[in-house]
Design a protein that fits this description.
Strand content: 35-45%
Number of strands: 19
Helix content: 10-25%
CATH topology of the domain at 36-237: Jelly Rolls
Order of helices and strands: HEEEEEEEEEEEEEEEEEHEE
Radius of gyration: 23 Å
Largest sheet: 17 strands, mixed
Distance between the termini: 82 Å
């Protein structure tokens, strides 16, 4: 003979099942957290006085240090230079008197056992603001779904380039493309594409007006200096690549390359320096010691 469960019995059964599933949900969330380490930046080189604002404190930027990338502000003094590498494989070389704000930098889990270090390891979303100064950018080959936007007071620059230089001041922004694809204007004015060997000069009369964009060949007199900036960024990105590793304790790395705010359980992004004879080939050379080397 079958008996019908009373409503209180059903309630108890539901509560029991829900309670039994809580550990599984917690384990799933923990596993997801392990697969999503915080995006990082690695300092490839520093010359002169350069500061980094992490949100918690402002400190001097030091060579081979590693920081969580999203939200940081890197600023070079008028007589200083530096180069950093983001964990998606993008190298950035800074001119003197440059300020760069990483407004957003998010990255999906890395592909396991990846072997192609010329392609970024996972989908990434980058949003950077440059109020002043100049940067050379040398990126990995972006995977489908990634976006890279660099903005100035005058324009948005959508980058799918391998080598591009952005220079900005109060009056104008100049975007010079050496290799790849770039669109300037973006949401501010529909956007115009420039080709390798061209540069866009962007001005803007007010924040309510669309930018004025003039596209021209890169002047021959400027080509060497622009090429050097991109080459320094490429040399920086070839000094290191990022991989994931399980963090075991706060003292897991004597060199301090793990950020102090990573949890003990989570996987972390680990910069792996490229030394002579390792997989990337070129030896580790300071991007500011050899300024005229061309990276192919």
């Amino acid at each position: 003979m079958k008996t019908k469960a009373t409503p209180p019995t059903r309630t108890l059964l539901v509560l029991f099942v829900a309670a039994s599933l809580l550990p599984l949900v917690s384990q799933t969330r923990a596993a997801d957290a392990r697969k999503n380490p915080t995006s990082k930046l690695y300092v490839a080189d520093v010359e002169g006085e350069v500061s980094i604002n992490t949100g918690d404190k402002i400190e001097d930027l030091t060579k081979k240090s590693v920081h969580s990338a999203e939200g940081v502000i890197v600023e070079t003094k008028p007589d200083a230079r530096n180069a950093i590498v983001l964990s998606n494989g993008t190298g950035i070389a800074f001119d003197p008197d440059t300020r760069l704000e990483v407004q957003r930098f998010q990255q999906e889990p890395f592909s396991p056992n990846r072997t192609d270090l010329e392609t970024e390891p996972s989908i990434s979303q980058t949003k950077v603001f440059i109020p002043r100064g100049g940067v050379g950018i040398c990126s990995s080959k972006l995977v489908a779904g990634s976006s890279m936007i660099y903005s100035t007071r005058h324009t948005d620059v959508s980058i799918r380039a391998r080598k591009v230089v952005i220079e900005t001041n109060d009056n104008q922004t100049v975007v010079s493309l050496l290799e790849g694809d770039v669109t300037v204007g973006g949401s501010l004015g529909g956007g115009q594409s420039i080709k390798p060997g061209q540069q866009a000069i962007i001005t803007r009369s007010s924040s309510s007006e669309p930018p004025q964009i003039r596209i021209q060949p890169i002047p021959e007199a400027d080509m060497e200096a622009i090429g050097d900036k991109a080459s320094m960024a490429c040399m920086a990105r070839r000094t290191v690549y990022f991989d994931t590793a399980e963090r075991k304790d706060e003292n897991a790395n004597a060199d301090g390359i793990f950020a102090q705010n990573d949890s003990e359980e989570a996987d972390v992004l680990v910069p792996v320096e490229v030394l002579p004879g390792t997989i990337l080939g070129p030896s580790t050379v300071s991007p500011f010691e050899i300024r005229r080397t061309v990276i192919r």
